[in-house]
Amino acid sequence: MTATAPREEQLWSRCAGCASLLYRKRLRRNLDVCPECGEHARLGAPERLRQLVDPGSLRPLADRLPEADPIDFVDVLPYPHRLTAARASTGLVEAVVCATATIGGHPVAMAVMDFRFLGGSLGCAVGELITRTAERALDERIPLVLVTASGGARMQEGVLSLMQMATVSQAIAALREAGLLTVSVLTDPTYGGVAASFATNTDLVLAESGARMGFAGPRVIRQVTGRALPEGFQTADFLLRHGQVDMVVQRRSLRGRLVALLAATHAGAPTRPSVPRQEPASHRERLAAADDAAALPPATPEADGTAAVRDAWDTVRMARHPGRPTTLDYLDSVFDGFVELHGDRLGADCPAIVGGVARLAGRHVMVIGHQKGHTTAELVARNFGMASPAGHRKALRLMRLAARLGLPVVTLVDTPGADPGVSAEEHGQAAAIAENILALTVLPTPVLAVITGEGGSGGALALAVADRVLMLENAVYSVISPEGCAAILWPDRSAAPQAARALRLRAPDLRRLGVVDEVVPEPPAAAHDDPAETALRLRAALLANLLPLLDVPPAMLVRLRRQRFRRFGATRAGQRAGVR
Asked: What CA–CA distances, in Å, run from 523 to 181, 311, 329, 412, 465?
């Protein structure tokens, strides 16, 4: 009896939805969908590909990348040990499988994520592999199909994992410019940085029946708001009702829907590839020179320009200090003649985002920033600087207005993250962030970002895809809060100081990683002790970094910005390993 038990377990499977005991072969014939209740079981990437592509057409793309532990992250286990265990349990090299294939005879490039591998988290290698797949699609002028399954960005790789949201988004932007179709298929679950970038900024977004998608997960939202969540919150049907996906598709119909969409695209495709316009030789020469100048700096203490003696947790507390200057403070002390503009033109004006036209040394600029406040009443009124979807859309409207007027954009980043509320998810928070990231990758005007306090996750990145990124000395920039990281990877939240050190979220660390171009020194105590001196230093840094950008032609500016974020792939991450 006991000897046959393992075999019996392999023959039968219990449905997670209705608890029915199902014959495994019957379940597999039904594409791992329960015949009793319709529950869609999660699929690994190899099985997903087997169901979708034409037999014999799959051509895997290379998935071997240099081993990288870019920030030497250790929680209760060293990060490389977690990678080794994930590879052993899944048989995969990483959390995505990439290939070219045909679906119904139509050639496609595909990147399929696998939740079994570290929760399908988006790290440098995953971002690099998906970006290479998009570049293959561009080279071969074929559609790109993404199948997402992820808990979000990979916290063990710190802010470098956050950069992958921009890297993949700009690859999708290149496909959009070339007139090539991009399709994402949301499967269960799709959250965090993946939801707020390439999962929702493609041309078409399909959701498999039963899939859940959002920026913040249900547990986080319940903890933050203390509210019960609506019935079916963040499910595929919820997303469809709130206009966030094009369609909800049963698994048995998914391949057929893709075939139909690809066929329509093929029918309207140009008969010959377009030839990119060549820039004048002088532009190419300047581009090469700019590439050399933009190379990542050597990891030396002198490159930081700061003493960098403050402990990471002390820096977090400093960045959150209620007396720290806010965006409105800087608009009063660094800029001149600020005229605030309101509204997203869709029905709301988010107080956590302020923006408008101002002057900097006589030059007009568009300034957009997160606004917190100093008192409890101000913080509550401004939602602690956490932007709603309306805030992200207001920022997007002002960015596009700046581009039409030929104004440089300066962003001031100070937010714990995006709004973790029910309403924000109902109004498409992930897609709003994704659209900002995508728009910034192609904005034909200079963009200069400054991390002035907290740079939290996708809410920060939505304003920080820039030509140059500056960071005040006592600011922080991270893929997740130390408390959130500790709650997930350590036994309890009391390990937040340890998590802060492991995340490498201080300005000197990020300068060495190449995420930040310049660290702006604060007065000896901190910015809140001498706001006037801080303003003078910030103004000087803004002018020094903005003026050279004004002479760069728009096409070259966009190209250089893309190259900047393209550098954050696995190869460059491997070269940056060992940051202390």
From this structure: 51, 17, 16, 19, 27
Tokens 């030839």, located at residue = 275
Report the pLDDT value the prediction gives residue 11, as an integer from 0 to 100: 82
- 259-275 average pLDDT score: 57
Q: What number of H helices and E strands is found in the chain?
A: 24, 18
Q: Where are the beta strands (DSSP E) in 232-319?
A: 247-249
547: tokens are 């003026």
Cross-strand bridge partners of residue 469 = 449
β pairing state of 106-113 and 96-103: antiparallel
Strand (E) or helix (H) holding 49? helix 45-52
Res 283 pLDDT > 80: no
Farthest CA pair distance, the chain: 85
What spatial distance separates the first Cα and last Cα of the chain, rounded to whole Å?
A: 56
What are the structure tokens assigned to 529, written together? Answer: 């002790």
Place of tokens 């377009």: 274
Residue 46 above 80 pLDDT? Answer: yes
> What contacts 24+ positions apart, CB below 8 Å, involve 314-317?
315/474, 315/475, 315/476, 315/500, 315/505, 315/506, 316/476, 316/482, 316/500, 316/505
- Of the chain, the percentage scoring pLDDT greater than 70 comes to 88
Average pLDDT for the chain: 84
Considering the entire predicted model, what is its pTM? 0.77
Report the C-alpha gap between 107 and 144 in whole angstroms.
Answer: 9
**Quick one: pLDDT band at residue 10, thresholds 50, 70, 90?**
low
